[in-house]
Amino acid sequence: MDAFTAGILQRIRTTESDLIRARESGDDFLVDVEQAELEDLRRLAAEYGVEVGATSV
Hints:
The protein is mainly alpha-helical. It has 2 helices and no strands. It is elongated, with a radius of gyration of 12 Å.
């Protein structure tokens, strides 16, 4: 696995965790921010052929 793939997958995992915490805390604004970030990261991964797999978020 190259550095780009490892980095994008780590960022996705971190953002998923942050999104879960935002939902649990009831912070609607932060939920929106984290969801948008996650969508951008998944789009970027898809553009470069990085398979993300199923997620819990």
